[in-house]
């Protein structure tokens, strides 16, 4: 059998995918968004103090994977940025969201950047080079393999690349598999629609002929790798074609669309230290399902 096919999770996020993900964050099963928000609210004063201790009272806030910018908006009174830089691969969706932020904060300098930041952190010249605080919520760092996550964090901390002075990071923690799997396979099928929309996006990008009706959504916890995996599984033998190419799939064969690694507070602290961050602290919810980290350079 051919090597398992895979697709980068960045292909989830066309305009429709970004909107479906917004719906996912409101689901009962999807605890990360509301749990992270609760931590931010409870620790707001301590977060503000941590920034102040580093002389970052008016930072350049770089919001990675900004989406609808709602998480950054909730922290504006805490972080008080002098410049806000939302970054997302879905440029059209981001442009609309940044416009709404500008309406709420007309004097704030906003530079919206549509880019695949996983490939590099070279930002436009109008992004202020000093006092950069990176904001990476939602446990999106978990989409990287651990070695890739370390390299990404190192680029962020590199004075010649990311130029970070600090990082505010949201990370999902290891917990019971049933809770994890339900968060990625909800009863209403919204996450299944999100996963299948990747095929529609690939069709548009490659002129391929994936038929989403021929695939089913699969989510499972791989305990050995400490990660949730999402797959699309062929319901029958089929062939997918795009200009100059074709790929046969057998019934039951899968496309691996996402890995979401889960950490402990100890393992994430070690990863941040290896990347060059110091003065690391974290806050969790009462159930210790999720953690928010602050790490400074």
Topology:
Blueprint: E1 5-6, H1 15-24, H2 31-42, H3 44-53, E2 60-64, H4 70-79, E3 83-88, H5 91-104, E4 109-110, E5 113-114, E6 132-136, H6 146-157, E7 164-172, H7 177-183, H8 190-206, E8 215-222, E9 227-234, E10 238-242, E11 245-249, E12 254-261, H9 265-275, E13 278-284, E14 290-296
Parallel strand pairs: 1-12, 2-3, 2-6, 3-4, 3-5, 6-7
Antiparallel strand pairs: 7-14, 8-9, 9-12, 10-11, 13-14
Helix pairs in contact: 1-8, 6-9
Structure, described:
Helix 1 packs antiparallel against helix 8. 39% of the residues are buried. This protein is an alpha/beta fold and 297 residues long. Strands 2, 3, 4, 5, 6, 7, 13 and 14 form an eight-stranded mixed sheet that branches. It folds into two domains: 5-12 and 181-261, no CATH class; 43-175 and 263-296, Rossmann fold, CATH 3.40.50.150. Helix content is 35%, strand content 27%.
